[in-house]
Fold this sequence. Notes:
Elements: H1 4-45, H2 56-60, H3 79-92, H4 99-108, H5 118-128, E1 132-135, E2 139-142
Antiparallel strand pairs: 1-2
Amino acid sequence: MPSAIDRLRIEADQLKARLANLTVLIERYEQLEREAERLVGQEREQTPSAVAPANVADRAKPVDAPPKQRLPASAATPFADYEAALRDILLAAEKPMRRKPLYIALTERGITLPGADGIGAFTTRLYRAEWIVNLQGWGYWLADRPFEPAAYAPPGSSLEGPESQPEEKKPSELDLSKFE
């Protein structure tokens, strides 16, 4: 019979595997979401007088997106530099920023992320960053910085009452037993 420690290690391994599966699912849904946004954007751009591209492949490419190239991890910006740039951008912002403008601000500073899907890697990093919160309906904001219009106060700050937004749960705090 396995000891309590062995059972906990087995459970931890199972949770890690489940979390990896959930991460893959999230990335797939985000990819579908980006594709839907791209398609909706194309419909808005086309007017009855617009000339359709001669090549079907030309219609599939977003107008503002450069061709995707897989960037090796060694060519990506070091993580500490990425975090410093992200913190500087959010400190300079007067209000929370949505994901795409935040990503664009990073790339304008020369920040590069590994992989073929930079915004996908960026989304994953945003989700995992404990020092950033996603204020529902507003965008991403520094977790230690209050934002009164959204009634957000950092955990443990003086703003109290039902208006203060609870901290978003991280994967380690979620009950994954319902997914087994």
